[in-house]
Amino acid sequence: MTPTPRPTQIKLQTQSRCLELSYSDDEKYPLSYEFLRVLSPSAEVRGHGKPVLQTGKKDVIITNLEPAGNYALKITYNDGHDSGLYTWEYLYDLCCNQEEYWRDYLLQLETASASREA
């Protein structure tokens, strides 16, 4: 089994509001702040097996980013959310499956008659 790649570079792009993860010169993934927030690995979002749909997070901002040991990132958002560790494995999964996860999220919002707007 191949180990999960670890990003070689992590950039917080404040203007485009993306966290850019680079794994090589030709493998870079921008993950929007909103995408990361609504798919947080925290128990608050994951809901202990019953996920809690996150709404109104379109304008969320990452206010702090710090390493958690050698295996994850801890992300703090301006809405006060700061629980859940984004492991290298989870981040790489988000990068590789971003379109599918985003489409799924938008469908959940539509089904719940909820909004991305605050």
Give a written overview of the molecule.
The chain is of the alpha+beta class. It has one domain (9-107): NE0471 N-terminal domain-like (2-Layer Sandwich), CATH 3.30.2020.30. Helix content is 28%, strand content 29%. It contains four helices and six strands. It has helices at 33-38, 43-46, 88-96, 98-111; strands spanning 9-13, 18-24, 27-32, 62-68, 72-77, 85-87. The chain has a three-stranded antiparallel β-sheet. Strands 4-5-6 form a three-stranded antiparallel β-sheet. The longest helix is centred in the C-terminal third of the chain and has 14 residues, at 98-111. It is globular, with a radius of gyration of 14 Å. It starts with 8 loop residues before the first strand and ends in a 7-residue tail after the last helix. The relative contact order is 0.19. The model has no long low-confidence stretch (mean pLDDT 94).
